[in-house]
Automatic annotation (TrEMBL), chain A:
Subcellular location: Cell membrane
Gene3D superfamilies: MetI-like
Topological relation to the membrane, as annotated: Multi-pass membrane protein
InterPro entries recorded: ABC_transporter_permease, MetI-like, MetI-like_sf
The keyword Metal-binding is annotated on this UniProt entry: no
Cellular component aspect of the GO annotation: plasma membrane
A GO biological process held by the record: transmembrane transport
Name the UniProt record assigns to this protein: Multiple sugar transport system permease protein
Family statement: Belongs to the binding-protein-dependent transport system permease family.
Record-annotated membrane-spanning stretches: 25-46, 96-121, 133-153, 177-197, 235-254, 289-313
Chief site of localization: membrane
Keywords per UniProt: Cell membrane, Membrane, Sugar transport, Transmembrane, Transmembrane helix, Transport
Automatic annotation (TrEMBL), chain B:
Top-level division of the source organism's lineage: Bacteria
Keyword line: Signal, Sugar transport, Transport
UniProt keyword NADP, yes or no: no
Organism of derivation: Propionibacterium cyclohexanicum
InterPro entries: Bact_solute-bd_prot1, SBP
Keyword Transport on entry: yes
PANTHER family: ARABINOSE-BINDING PROTEIN-RELATED (PTHR43649), DIACETYLCHITOBIOSE BINDING PROTEIN DASA (PTHR43649:SF12)
Signal peptide start and end residues: 1-21
Protein name stated in the entry: Multiple sugar transport system substrate-binding protein
Length: 322, 435
């Protein structure tokens, strides 16, 4: 027996030993993941399944204490919400359309402002840090403090907005209402953009750092204008950031609850009746948790479909250009 | 793999088991009161949450001294109270004793989350016959065992600024028409002064005035089977009459449509931007904190129209006190309710919380102005009607109140609403009521 074969035998035995030790610890990775799984089940899965169950029962004030005894409602909650001939259906459809318009405007303007500011601050210049900090202030401010300040500013008689527009610039002869009627929509959109655009700015600014400056230098030598540089270099190279940014902003803005809640209080004007707040009112103000849950499930389904379609389209486009 | 499945199943069972244990921990059982600790959710009655704490703490200490029962106090603002109660009832995790708006009495009774005050419980708190009858009726639907008892009484009155009335050579109005005429004479939009101020953006205030104006017309908001009747002429006319204060009579500043709570209209009255305000008697503390002195205002009952079917001037407003069905400290909770509704506590709290006593023989103490005390006591005892004692009362407040918010907003932004449009809005509110 050669020393080599002995060594070989030892190596095989060591490998077998290691494998058997590994087999003995097979459960260790599961153990590490277990707390996260338990929390995920407790915090996300169980409430989500409970919400879906609630949408199929008649969970009104008569059953909130004995919620497990709430009578089965079948699809009646869904029928009520989706039937535009009923007051509830009309209100839900109105709220959904308002929220779609709100989302499109807030996401678009936030992205445009964020992109403009990020590009403007891309090159080094004196005072750049101050501008960056200033632009991030709305994002750093506590949400409640920021929005309640806007509420004060939008007051008809004592607000800063009317003082500027009516008393200083004389753009209106009569003081307009900003928290009532159709202008309430403008107000909630403005506040949401103010709150959201620094996030777009932050993400895009981080994305711009990863674009090598020599690409710009080479294009400048070739005579590319700043607009052409932005269209042909900045935009394509920021595409991975934009994919995530649009998706995240869409989901946040569509689900926005805090802005209308703080800006308008519990009595939202119809023009500011965003869907999350509409669902809250249906559940907690009218004590109809089954109806509120049906609306939530429909909202969840809509967001899932939009997200999936968005990701599939992007994937197909990537495959096309790959 | 089978082992893994077993572990996952065991973990899930643990999570569910914990949740179930949490849900079930509120099961009731009585215990010896002395030495126990109860949790009390108080509503905001004073000028702030801190003020409430300052007022209540010495009394709670006194209760502990008398009974040996400790009280954990939490004062909850009105914006959060209803949601907190709903959550407590759903989970069975809540206080032992709590305050509720008395207009929620029947709605909360319907949830089954509050303890019934049957004969033995009523006896334990000193008997039901000591309460003002109309206030006691708010504790539950007619013919049922109440689940809450009156704690603080409130009533609406028409506050007027004495100096402004004197300068204009006016006397306090005795009819709705007189009130509107006086208000017109006191309105001067150029100086920003109006005859009246309303919390026209508050859905609860608006719902109360829909009820009071409809009641003056002799109209009921629900029929005998509990179905809403918001579109009948008496209700539509009553709501229109109230809206007309801003729309046709123009005695209310359109900006009042932004007033989402009563404190803003009280501030407008205190700052002499309005000569009259219809408010509950708890306005006194806020008026004083806004710089007004008690001799600057007078109070008369909210007048009804000359040909009114009823002289109702207020709903039976106020706060009730209830015990959660899930309490583990029933005896201590009953002792506490007895203490809070005792004559001495009522007198002690009457002044700081500007409340009317809910006991038959107790005297009102919320002001030193004897005339005001007499006026409010008379309104509360003789000219108040309970809001509909039906489980859907809460939905009436939210749907009709919000419809009125929207109508005031339309008027403020330049629209002119016809009675048919008012009826349509009330019809939408009516059809929104589910269950």
């Amino acid at each position: 027996m050669s020393s080599q074969s002995i060594k070989g035998g030892n190596a095989t035995s060591a490998a077998r030993h290691r494998r058997s030790r590994r087999r003995g610890w097979w459960w260790f990775p599961y153990l590490i993941v277990l707390p996260a799984v338990i929390l995920e089940i407790a915090i996300h899965i169980i409430p989500m399944l409970t919400g879906i169950w609630m949408s199929f029962v008649k969970l009104t004030k008569f059953y909130i204490r004995r919620w497990n005894e709430a009578p089965f409602a079948g699809l009646s909650n869904y029928r009520l919400v989706l039937n535009v001939d009923t007051a509830q259906g009309q209100a839900f459809a109105h709220s959904f359309l308002i929220t779609c318009a709100y989302t499109v405007l807030v996401v678009s303007f936030s992205w445009i402002l964020g992109m403009a500011a990020a590009v403007a601050l891309q090159k080094t210049f004196r005072g750049r840090g101050i501008w960056r900090t200033l632009f991030l202030v709305p994002y750093a401010l506590p949400m409640y403090a920021g929005v309640i300040t806007w509420n004060f500013m939008f007051q008809r008689d004592t607000g800063a907005i009317n003082h500027l527009l009516v008393d200083q610039l004389h753009l209106y002869s009569d003081r307009p209402f900003w928290l009532l009627g159709s202008r309430a929509f403008v107000s909630v959109v403005v506040v949401a953009i103010w709150k959201m655009w620094p996030f777009a700015f932050l993400m895009l600014m981080a994305g711009l750092q990863s674009i090598p400056s020599d690409v710009y230098e080479a294009s400048a030598i070739d005579g590319a204008s700043p607009w052409r540089q932005w269209r042909s270099i900045t935009l394509p190279m920021l595409s991975p950031v934009n994919v995530v940014l649009f998706l995240v902003m869409f989901l946040w803005v569509f689900n926005d609850f805090n802005t209308p809640f703080v800006l308008f209080g519990r009595a939202t004007p119809p023009a500011g009746d965003l869907i999350s707040f509409h669902i809250y009112n249906a559940s907690f103000l009218n004590w109809d948790f089954g109806l509120g849950a049906a609306m939530s499930v429909l909202l969840l389904a809509f967001l899932l479909v939009v997200t999936l379609v968005y990701l599939v389209i992007l994937r197909n486009r990537r495959d096309l250009y790959a | 793999m089978r082992k893994l499945r077993t572990i996952v199943a065991a973990a899930t069972a643990c999570v569910l088991g914990l949740a179930a244990a949490g849900c079930g921990s509120g099961s009731s059982s009585s215990s010896t009161a002395s030495g126990s600790t109860i949790t009390y959710w108080a509503s905001n009655q004073g000028t702030s949450l801190d003020n409430d704490k300052e007022v209540l703490t010495p009394l709670l200490d006194e209760f502990t001294k008398q009974t040996g029962v400790k009280v954990n106090l939490e004062v909850i603002g009105w914006n959060d109270l209803q949601t907190r109660i709903q959550t407590a009832i759903t989970s069975g995790q809540g206080p032992d004793v709590l305050n509720i708006g008395n207009t929620w009495g029947v709605s909360l009774q319907a949830t089954g989350g509050l303890m019934e005050f049957g004969d033995s419980e009523m006896k334990a708190i000193g008997g039901s016959d000591r309460f003002v009858q109309a206030a006691l009726e708010t504790g539950g639907a007619p013919g049922t065992t109440p689940t809450s008892v009156p704690l603080y009484g409130l009533a609406y009155g028409l506050y007027y600024n004495k100096a402004m009335f004197q300068q204009a050579g006016l006397t306090p109005p005795a009819s709705w028409e007189e009130m509107v005429d006086d208000a017109k004479k006191l309105t001067n939009p150029a100086t920003g002064v109006y005859g009246m101020t309303l919390a026209a953006g508050s859905y609860t205030e608006n719902a109360h005035f829909a009820f009071i104006n409809a009641a003056q017309n002799g109209a009921e908001l629900f029929d005998s089977s509990g179905k809403p009747t918001f579109t009948q002429d008496g209700v539509v006319n009553g709501v229109s009459r109230y809206l007309d204060l801003m729309q046709t009579d123009k005695v209310v500043n359109p900006s009042d449509a932004q007033f989402t709570d009563g404190s803003k209209s009280i501030a407008a009255f205190a700052n002499k931007k309005a000569a009259m305000i219809i408010n509950q008697n708890n306005a006194n503390a806020t008026l004083i904190s806004n710089g007004m002195s008690e001799d600057e205002w007078g109070v008369v009952p909210l007048p009804a129209p000359q040909n009114a079917a009823s002289q109702v001037a207020s709903h039976v407003a106020g706060i009730n006190i209830a015990i959660m069905k899930s309490t583990k400290n029933k005896d201590a909770a009953l002792q506490f309710v007895k203490f809070m509704t005792s004559q001495s506590t009522q007198e002690a709290l009457g002044k700081p919380f500007s409340s009317l006593p809910v006991l038959k023989d107790a005297k009102a103490t919320f002001t030193t102005n004897a005339e005001e005390l007499k006026t409010f006591t008379d309104i509360y005892n003789n000219r108040s009607k309970p809001l509909p004692l039906v489980p859907n009362e809460d939905q009436f407040e939210s749907t009709v109140g919000k419809a009125m918010n929207n109508m005031f907003a339309s008027i403020a932004t330049g629209s002119n609403l016809t009675p048919d449009q008012v009826r349509n809005q009330l019809n939408t509110a009516q059809t929104s009521i589910t269950s």
